[in-house]
Task: structure prediction
Amino acid sequence: MTFQVGDKVIYPNHGLGIVERIEEKTILGTTCGFFHLRIVSNDTTVLVPVANVDGVGLRKAITDEEVERLFSLLGDGKIDTIRTGKVVSRTIPTRCVPVRSMTWPTFSRA
Result:
């Protein structure tokens, strides 16, 4: 996966980060590319090797529109009765419907 300067990304265990710059560094005679991420929650800098993006789970953050859609799917109060053995699509809405179906009864008992 490739990122550009200014992209908002999610870095597991750190949260939301912004790609500040992309540069090559030579360490112990080996040159490789790095993404410089500024972690929003604590304003720290994390360097992620370009070759290790998939290994650390770095991914693009969802858009504001996707966040609104996610909240509307999770918060409508309806429980889906259809249960499937596996999620076919890796989109956010197909992931959140089973979560909503499993968690909503817990919230409604309070």
